[in-house]
Design a protein that fits this description.
The protein is α/β, with parallel strands linked by helices and 346 residues long. The chain has 2 domains: 100 residues; 234 residues, Vaccinia Virus protein VP39 (Rossmann fold). The protein is built from 12 helices and 10 strands. The strands form 2 sheets. An 8-stranded mixed sheet has the order 3-6-5-4-7-8-10-9, with helices on both faces. α2 crosses α10. The structure holds S-adenosylmethionine.
Length: 346
C-alpha cells in the first residue's frame, strides 16, 4: 500500500472512519450549534437596540454565552475532535515513520529548485508553541509535515479543495510579468506552489523557520515539477539583498507571530520589495470586520486552541502598519475564501 498520495497520508480504514467522524461532527456543530448560539446573542442585541440600551460588548457576549450548555458542548466538541485528530494522525504517521522520513530526506533526482537548511538558525522563543495544539508545534517533530498536510483537510472540515484557502491569497497578487517573488513562511508548500503555478516564469523563493516543513515543501514542489527555491530563515530578517523582489507575500503567517515580530516582518518586507513592487499580507479576518459575537468566539483560538497571538493579530491595524513602514496605495480586502489581504506598493 502506498504510504502517501499527493503528499497526504494514505490512511487505513479505521483511521479514515475516525477522520470522517471528526469532519462530520465539526460540520454538524458549525451548521447546527453555532447558529443557535449566535441567535441568542442577536436576540439580546435586538432587545437592547429596541430599548435604546448601549450595544453589546465582548464582555456582555461572554456573560450570555459562556454559561450556556450549547456553547460549552460546541467548544468541547471542537477541542476534543482536534485532539483526537492529531493523536490519530501521529499514530498513523508513526507506523510508517521510516518510509516517510526516508522520503523526506531522499534527494530529488535532478532538482529543479533548491533547499537550503540552516541548523544554526536561532529559533525565536515565540515559535515554541504547539500551534493549533499540534504536539511538537511546527518544528520539533519530524513527522509534522505529513500530519499537517493530512490534518488540514479535516481541520477545515472539508478537503480544503486542494488548498483553496491558500490559493485565494495567491490570486490576490496582481497580474504581472515578475522576475522574482518571495513567499514569507511558506510552510509545507500550500501557499507557494499556487504562486509558482500562477507565475511559472518568475523565480519563486520561499522561507520558513521550520526545517521539517521546508523539506516536505521541497519534495512536493519537485514531485510536481516546479522549480522553487526554499531556505530556512526568519521572516524578521532574511539574507536577501535590498529591493530584490517584485512581489513579497505571506499567507497566514501573521496570526502566528506576536506584535513585535509582525512589525519586524513588515519592515523586512519593505526592505525586500523593489521600488514600485507589491507587498501583501494574507491572514485571518481583522477584528474590526467581525461582529461582537465573532470577536468573542475568535478569542477562543487564543485561549484554548494553541493560537496565543490570534487576538493581537486580529486587533492589528495592518493598513496603518503598512503605511507607517513606507508602503503607499494600501488596500484591505477579503479573498474569495474568507481570508483578508492587506497590500501596498513600495
Ligand atoms: C499557518 S502556517 C502557513 C504556512 C503557509 N504559508 C501556508 O499557507 O500553508 C504559518 C507558518 O509560519 C511559519 N513561521 C512562523 N513564524 C515565522 C518566522 N518568524 N519566520 C518564518 N516563518 C515563520 C511557520 O513555521 C508556519 O510554517
Amino acid at each position: 500500500m502506498a504510504v502517501l498520495e499527493a503528499g497526504e497520508l494514505v490512511l487505513d480504514q479505521p483511521d479514515r472512519a475516525t477522520m470522517e467522524f471528526i469532519k462530520n461532527l465539526k460540520a454538524y456543530t458549525t451548521a447546527a450549534l453555532s447558529p443557535k448560539i449566535a441567535e441568542r446573542v442577536q436576540a439580546e442585541a435586538d432587545r437592547r437596540r429596541t430599548e435604546g440600551a448601549p450595544p453589546l460588548t465582548v464582555e456582555d457576549v461572554a456573560a450570555i454565552v459562556s454559561p450556556a450548555f450549547i456553547w460549552k458542548a460546541d467548544r468541547l466538541i471542537a477541542r476534543q475532535t482536534q485532539e483526537m485528530m492529531w493523536t490519530r494522525l501521529f499514530e498513523a504517521a508513526s507506523r510508517h515513520a521510516d518510509d516517510l522520513l526516508a522520503w523526506l530526506d531522499e534527494p530529488a533526482g535532478q532538482p529543479l529548485g533548491t533547499l537550503t537548511l540552516d541548523p544554526s538558525l536561532e529559533i525565536p522563543d515565540y515559535f515554541e508553541v504547539d500551534y493549533h495544539i499540534q504536539p511538537g508545534g511546527m518544528h520539533r517533530e519530524p513527522l509534522i509535515p505529513f500530519v499537517l498536510a493530512t490534518g488540514q483537510v479535516v481541520y477545515h472540515a472539508g478537503r480544503n479543495d486542494r488548498w483553496a484557502l491558500k490559493r485565494s491569497v495567491a490570486e490576490m497578487i496582481p497580474d504581472g510579468d515578475y522576475e522574482r517573488i518571495l513567499d514569507l513562511a511558506c510552510g509545507i508548500g500550500q501557499s507557494i506552489i499556487p504562486i509558482k503555478e500562477r507565475f511559472p516564469t518568475a523565480e519563486v523563493y520561499g522561507i520558513d523557520l521550520a526545517a521539517p516543513l521546508l523539506k516536505y515543501a521541497h519534495r512536493l514542489a519537485e514531485s510536481e515539477g516546479l522549480a522553487i527555491h526554499l531556505s530556512q530563515q526568519n521572516a524578521e530578517r532574511t539574507n536577501f539583498p535590498d529591493g530584490w523582489f517584485d512581489v513579497v507575500t505571506s499567507c497566514i503567517l501573521f496570526h502566528e507571530i506576536p506584535d513585535e515580530a509582525a512589525h519586524n516582518v513588515i519592515a523586512e518586507g519593505y526592505r525586500l520589495t523593489k521600488p514600485g513592487g507589491y507587498f501583501q499580507i494574507g491572514d485571518t479576518v481583522p477584528y474590526r470586520h467581525l461582529d461582537t459575537f465573532r470577536r468573542f468566539s475568535s478569542d477562543w483560538q487564543t485561549e484554548h486552541n494553541g493560537e496565543p497571538y490570534w487576538r493581537q493579530a486580529g486587533q492589528r491595524d495592518y493598513p496603518a502598519l503598512l503605511r507607517a513602514a513606507g508602503f503607499r496605495d494600501v488596500e484591505e480586502r477579503p479573498t474569495r475564501a474568507g481570508l483578508w489581504v492587506t497590500s501596498g506598493r513600495k
